[in-house]
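Hi V.,

Quick status before I head out on leave. The structure for the redesign project is tokenized and pasted below; the design run finished overnight.
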């Protein structure tokens, strides 16, 4: 079988599935958390930010019978969020997944307000505003001012440093990261991010809350990009480079989906919101100017094509629809971009498409392992399988690296670095991979026990 072929019912897949299950069972085990760490009372829940993420988080609570209050500064945002929530629940009613009484009950568990004073008695406030540090600073300073002593403050950030956000408050011990993967009411993963000063009781409380929400909880230390989005940024960078080199958006998506990904990279960008990654890239342009990015995604955003929520991104969508339709306007934009940049198109095999994207995940995962000794490879694999659509029957990116061999991985990365339009900096192997190749070691044996 080629690397693109794998029998999801074969022996190798069975071993990967057993590995994935074991990683999930160990994910929330925290040996350094005292057995007597307190659990704080959680009765009042506030969610600040009524966008796609905030409304999804609200539904995740309502689905478990927990009342929440959505807070936003704009009435139009609250109206749109409540309309979307109602539409989703009514769709479940029409499909027979909810009774009429249960549909009404869940909708009734979600309140809305424009006034911070209405949530001052909340035991937990979850910030879900735009991924921009100044916006989050304003929210946390206000929450710090109005919330009662002992209330917990959580950020849903996917790329910013939780410790930097905690520093905006006078209560950093009460601040923690709770990153729900979108759509938050459907995706099983919850990344809990422990800041340097996060109290044991806060960590224990939110881990138990995540489990009560029936989420698969993975705990990591505070770091920019967390686990999932650090890998995702590299994955998307390679996908965009492949477009420059002649691959179509539809082909890249179909090849990755045939390999086993739940969703191709461009369909994923549209689901998450292209404006979100645009903001992250613009920050990287300043903070890490040495990084190479294709600017085709910026040009797409400049046209207001932010994905599903705007009805158009890399694909076209009907109102609130999830079905993607190819759009000739995107083809025109790509042709113009290639002509403007002088990009030379070439034939790219399906194997190369898969390997460039998946090896980008592996290399960044190995860097994370080297930089954070408290994190094991199983956590990375759990995050990527449960939250980002990596095929479970392949175990996860770290496990998959071991199945193909670290030596083979490094040799292929070297070939990518030296080919036309290759980016040697991008394909510089993580030091951990080099060490493992020299000793014949395996990624999944590195820091196996947290």
């Amino acid at each position: 079988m080629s690397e693109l072929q794998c029998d999801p019912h074969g022996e190798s897949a069975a071993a990967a599935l057993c590995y994935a299950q074991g990683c999930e069972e160990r994910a929330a085990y925290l040996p350094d958390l005292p057995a007597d760490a307190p659990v704080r009372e959680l009765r009042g829940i506030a969610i600040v930010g009524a966008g796609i993420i905030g409304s999804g988080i609200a539904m995740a609570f309502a689905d478990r019978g927990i009342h929440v209050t959505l807070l936003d500064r704009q009435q139009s945002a609250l109206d749109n969020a409540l309309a979307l929530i109602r539409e989703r629940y009514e769709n479940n009613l029409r499909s027979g997944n909810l009774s009429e009484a249960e549909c009404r009950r869940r909708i009734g568990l979600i309140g809305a307000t424009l006034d911070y004073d209405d949530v001052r008695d909340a035991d937990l406030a979850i910030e879900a505003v735009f991924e921009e540090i100044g916006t989050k600073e304003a929210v946390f300073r206000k929450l710090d001012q109005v919330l009662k002593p002992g209330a917990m403050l959580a950020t849903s950030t996917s790329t910013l440093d939780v410790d930097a956000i905690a520093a905006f408050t006078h209560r950093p011990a009460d601040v923690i990261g709770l990153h729900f993967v979108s759509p938050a009411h459907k995706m099983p993963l919850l990344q809990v991010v422990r800041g340097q000063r996060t109290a044991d009781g806060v960590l224990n409380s939110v881990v138990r809350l995540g489990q009560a929400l029936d989420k698969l909880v993975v705990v990591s230390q505070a770091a920019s990009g967390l686990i999932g989005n650090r890998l995702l940024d590299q994955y998307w960078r390679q996908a965009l480079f492949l477009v420059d080199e002649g691959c179509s958006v539809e082909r890249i998506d179909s090849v990755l989906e045939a390999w086993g990904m739940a969703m191709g990279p461009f369909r994923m960008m549209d689901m998450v919101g292209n404006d979100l990654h645009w903001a992250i890239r613009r920050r990287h342009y300043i903070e890490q100017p040495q990084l190479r990015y294709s600017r085709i995604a910026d040009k797409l955003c400049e046209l207001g094509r932010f994905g599903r929520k705007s009805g158009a991104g890399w694909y076209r969508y009907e109102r609130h629809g999830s079905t993607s339709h190819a759009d000739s306007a995107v083809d025109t934009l790509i042709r113009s971009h290639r002509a403007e940049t002088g990009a030379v198109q070439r034939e790219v095999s399906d194997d190369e498409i898969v390997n460039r994207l998946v090896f980008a995940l592996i290399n960044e995962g190995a860097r994370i392992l080297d930089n954070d000794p408290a994190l094991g490879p199983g956590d990375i694999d759990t995050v990527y399988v449960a939250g980002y659509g990596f095929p479970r029957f392949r175990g996860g990116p770290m496990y998959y690296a071991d199945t193909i061999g670290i030596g083979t991985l490094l040799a292929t990365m070297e070939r990518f670095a030296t080919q036309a339009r290759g980016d040697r900096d991008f394909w510089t192997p993580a030091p951990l991979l080099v060490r493992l190749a020299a000793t014949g070691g395996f990624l999944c044996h590195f820091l196996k026990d947290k």
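Above is the designed sequence. The two ends are 35 Å apart (CA to CA).

G. will cover questions while I'm gone.

Best,
W.
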